[in-house]
Structure formats: C-alpha cells, structure tokens
Amino acid sequence: MRPRIALTFLSEIVMLAWHGAARAQEPTLPEFPVPEIVVTGSTLGISDTASQGTVSGAQLEERPAYRVGELLESVPGLIVTQHSGEGKANQYFLRSFNLDHGTDIAITLDGMPVNLRTHAHGQGYADLNFMIPELVDALRYSKGPYFADQGDFATAGAVAIDYVDALPRDLASIGVGTEGDYRGLAAASRLWGTGTLLIGFEYDHLDGPWLIPDNFNKGNAVVRYSRGTRENGFSLTGMYMNDAFHATNQIATRAVAEGLVSRFGAIDPSDGGSSERYSLSGRYAVTTADAALKLDAYAVGYSLQLFNDFDYFATFPPPLGDQFVQQDRRKIYGGNWSYARFGSLFGFDTTSTIGLQARSDDVHAGLAESTDRMVRFTVRDDHVVETSAGLYGENRITWGDTLRTIAGVREDVFHGSDASTLAANSGTLTRTMTSPKGTVVLGPWRETEYYLSVGQGFHSNDLRGALTTVDALQTELDQQKGVAAVVPQGKTPLLTKATGYEVGVRSEIVPRLKAEAALYVLALDSEATFDGDEAVTTPGRPSRRQGIELSAAYAPFDWLTIDGDFAFTRARYANADAGAGDTEPGHPGSYIPGAAKMVGSAGVMIGNLGPWSGEVHFRYFGPRPLIEDNSVSSGPTALFDAQVGYRLSERAKLRLDLYNLFNSRAHQIDYYYPSQLAGEAAPVYDIHFHPVEPLSARFTLALEF
C-alpha cells in the first residue's frame, strides 16, 4: 500500500502544478495595493498566537526611520540599533535577547534568508541594506519557536518581508537631510505580455554627525517579472546592492571624559568597510479548492570587507593597534517546497501540510590583523561549506466555531566542512535537531480569542567554533614570540536548542480597538558568544527568560490611529556561575549582559486629514546589565521621532522626517569590556558606547506618474 499511497500523493502534486501552469497562462491584471493607515479587518480566527501580525507597506512608509533597518521596529517589542557604520548590519533586541546581528531572529526578504551562517563578523549576520522600503508589500512577524515552517534562527522571533509584484503608479523621489543625507529613488511597473515587469533603483548617501563622515554610499537595483497572483502564479526576481562606508565604532567612556575624543569622534579613524550582494530568485504557487503547492528557489552572491578596532591597544602597542579585518565571500543556494491538502476529519475542516527547506552556504571567511587598513598577518582563513535540510509536517483542525488546534514537527539536518589554515581546526561535522510544536486556540467569545503554545526551535552556531581545537590568534602570537606552544580552544555545539511556552489573548471587544497580551517563557540551552577579532566562539551557560508583552491599536476616527506596546522580561542564566563569567573576573552572577528588562513604544498617526498626514513615534529601550552581577549597567534610551506629510497634488507629496526630536544624548548601545588607550600601561574595563545621532531632519519630495 505504501508505494501506491506515495504514487497517488505524487500524482496529485503533478496535476496541481499542471493546473497552476495552465492558469498562469491566463492574462491577469496586477492587484494594486490601496494605501491605508488603519487596519480594519479582524485577525480573530486567523492568527495562530497573540504575538503574530502583519504590517502593510503603506504603514511602513508612514513611519519615521533614520536607517532602513529601523523599519523592523514596527514589530512590537523589537529594538533596532547600530554601533558602527551605516553599511554594517544592525543590532537587534527582542524578548530580552541581545540578538547581536541576527543570531536569534530569522529574517527573510522576498523568500530569501537574510541571516548568514558562519559569517566572518557574527553568526546570523542580517544586513538589510539591500531592502528598498517603497517596494515592500507587507512585513509579517511572529515570536517564539512555535511554527513548523520556521527553522534556523527562529527562536526569539521571525520576520518575513514581501515585495510587491506591481505598483499602482510609477514612483520617483528625492530626499535631502541635515546630516549629509541624500537619497534618490525611481521605480516603475508595466504590463508585459501576460505578466508584469517591475523595475526599481535606489541611491543613498549619508555622512552622519561623526567628525569623520560615514561617507556611506549605497546603490540598489531590483528587476522582477511576475504573472498571475501570489496564490496562482510565479515571479522571477533579480537584485543587486553595493555599498562602502567609514565606521565610527563604539568609544570608551573614559576617553570622552578625559577629552581625548568627542562623543562623535573615533579612536581609530580608519575603521569601515564595503559589501556587495546580488541574487536571483523565483517563486511559483498554485491553489485550488483541494490543495495548495508552493515552490521557491534562490541563488545569492555576497561579499564583505570589514575593518574594526574595538579595544585599541590591548593586544598590540602603539603605533600598531588592534584593528582587524574580516572578509566574507560566499555563494548561497537554496529553496523551499510545501504542499497543503484541504480536507475533513470526522466532519471537521483540516489542513495538512508537508514541507522541505534546503540551503547550502559556500563560504570563504578570513581574519587578519591590520593597521590603518594594511594587513600585518593572517590569523586564520577558512573555506566552509555548510548545508542543511529541514523537513516539516503540520496539521490544522478546526473543531468547531471556538476551537482550533495546530500540531507540527520538523527535523533538521546540518552538515558542514571546514578547511582552515590550521589543520587542527579543520574537519567535518553532522548534527540533527527535532523540534515539536503545538498550539491550541480557543474562541472567539465576545470578540476575544485565547492561545496556548509550546514548541522547540534552534539556532545554528558558527561551524568554525564547532570544529576548532586551537586558538589561532594566541597560537600565532606565541609563535611570533618564539614560543612553540599550541593554545587549546574549547568547542561549541553546532546547534543550540530553544524551548518556549506562551499563553496569549487577542481581543476586539471594544469597537475600533485591537489589543493583544502574551505571557511567555523561553529557555536556551547555551548563550554562546562569538568574538570576531579572534574568530572564536565561547560556549555559554543555559538561560531562561520569562516575560509579558502588551500591545494595542485604537482608531477612534478614520483619520487617527493610536498604538503602543510594552514588554517586561526577567532574563537570567539558568545555572550558577563558576566564577569568572565572560566579562570581568571576580564578578559572578546570573544576569545576562545586554538583556533589556523593559522596552516599549507608542505612536500617534494621522492620515486622510485633508492634504495632511503625520506620525509622532516614541521608543523606550530600558537599562541593560552589562556584567553578570549587574554591578555595571547601561542607561535607558528614550527617543521621539516625527513625520509630517503634505500632499501638494494627487501625484506629489512633500514629507519632513525629524529624528531624535528632543536632541537626546542617550546611547544607541553599550558594552563593558577591557580596552587600552594609547597612554595607558594596561587594559582597563570600561563602558564603551555608540551615541544616538542628534536632532536631524530629512526632506523628501515623492512623485507618482
């Protein structure tokens, strides 16, 4: 019977694909999105958890954002910062995780993974500079490891960004800012044969307030051909991005206090870098009354060269310094396949889905010590090939008007090889991870729905750390001193498991008010950290986070929306500290460095008020412990941004964005570690910070044709 069942299953998929191909031949006009700032549709009966949602492209367009990555702050509870030049990936914080550059948040754009595994600078490195905001159709987010179709990095949360297939009108805009900010955009779509051709170009330049200007120059291009709809059709998309920048990195507090450098100055004036990304991706989907088939595939090329000096002269005395250069070149190939069957069980509606996700990264990652961007010697050079496959199954049953269940499981297999400059750090490794997941949804009763979720997920760690046995930098330094000793280095697990529990509620009982609340627990098996200047991953202790999230949106009038969100989390290591921790010796404790206790935001949005529109947005990033006993902590960061728009005509709009409205002197981010200035005899533990940019403005003239 099994071969017959498999043959029947395969024949259904083939027939479904044939049906979709025939349907895609039929000419269809593109479905143009209608800009709205108020979400009027109910999410009850649709959402799987209270901490899941969608933000439209029109809503993102009305949000003031200093840098493109900050648009992700439309996800309730997500904080996006920067500690370096604009061409570098952002720092992300969610559910009291310091996600670094993307370790515990899975980000995709148009179906392609943004997170980069075994990256030269940091695991899960997620650089969104290739995103063009005006082309975004929607941003879909979820939190927690409760979704069977989400694999690597989707522990604290996941964000999926979709581009439009067509524009209602051609677009052109030009922007000028007070911080040496210039931006130009042009985008157009046309019916071409039985499909639609979309083309978009962007150029961006930013200097910032820094004494040495960022001189950030970025070019973006997108070309897409699509036919049909997202449910029944296909698309083929090419993207290209290239940028270069100077970086003013975080600076030591004592250097500012002693007058050695200003808040906007740099200790090493030669930090910076450049990156390039190009991709080709395709999407195919067909949906009938009985089933849905989805296929997508992608090929991505990427390169990065990054110069950083975070501790100045702690390892090498003047004039050499501790600058290092990280280089990453890779090709990524992958795709996703899913087949959903709609049916019934004992008279109840069911949807059963099976899916397969595969990805392979061919990586050349290098690390060298440098001075003023001149390489002095190579620390290590690795050729890593890392391949994964994830098979998942999910079953959804609607047991009646007030009960739904979602049960899923996924099995992931990772295989990697590393050919390193040190033979002792080379090798191969295979690991697997099983992740069961389940959700029960009760309601709605009186326009209120309740959710109970439990699930496991994981993030991958740097493959080099899972294979390394020798500390490459310390061994090289000893050899330069004539010491033949080999410095051992402990290994880290390739895959780290996360286990989550969540109880949530979503209510629309009050007219024009949508409110959500979630109580969650998220446990991580290890808080491993990656040290980029040594290419070393350090195993960490297990952790546990318990928190509450509240969010609401109220639209008392068609032209006014008020929203806000708040999150409180208790984050602790789950076992006792043996003594040293991973920061200053002699300070044991259970606090997790960088874990924010409270975050929140609020906004007032006005639209359709004659020719006027606008928004005032507030963001609060609470204090974080910077060391395990919480004896050193950061201050809070509270920022106000605003946007005012005036429609000059049906086809022209003028917009003014104001950032850091009250000129706060707060910090984007804080770290606590030892560094050594030029006049110091030994390294000194200190808070190192990156300041918030001062009050600035950006004027934009947007035209539609």
Architecture overview:
It is a single chain. The protein is mostly beta strands and 705 residues long. It has one domain: Maltoporin, Chain A. It has a 22-stranded antiparallel β-barrel. A hairpin with a 4-residue loop joins strand 25 and strand 26. The longest helix has 23 residues. The protein is globular and about 75 Å long.
List the SSEs and their pairings.
Layout: H1 2-24, E1 52-56, H2 57-61, E2 79-81, E3 91-94, E4 97-98, E5 105-109, E6 112-113, E7 136-143, E8 157-163, E9 171-177, E10 181-192, E11 195-206, E12 216-228, E13 233-246, E14 251-252, H3 253-257, E15 272-287, E16 291-308, E17 324-345, E18 348-371, E19 374-400, E20 403-420, E21 427-445, E22 448-460, H4 463-467, H5 472-480, E23 495-507, E24 513-524, E25 529-531, E26 536-538, E27 543-557, E28 560-573, E29 598-609, E30 612-621, E31 637-649, E32 652-659, E33 667-675, E34 684-691, E35 696-704
Parallel strand pairs: 5-8
Antiparallel strand pairs: 1-7, 2-3, 3-4, 5-6, 7-8, 9-10, 9-35, 10-11, 11-12, 12-13, 13-15, 14-34, 15-16, 16-17, 17-18, 18-19, 19-20, 20-21, 21-22, 22-23, 23-24, 24-27, 25-26, 27-28, 28-29, 29-30, 30-31, 31-32, 32-35, 33-34
Total tally of structural domains: 1
Report the CATH topology name. Answer: Maltoporin, Chain A
CATH superfamily: TonB-dependent receptor, beta-barrel domain
> End-to-end span in angstroms?
61 Å
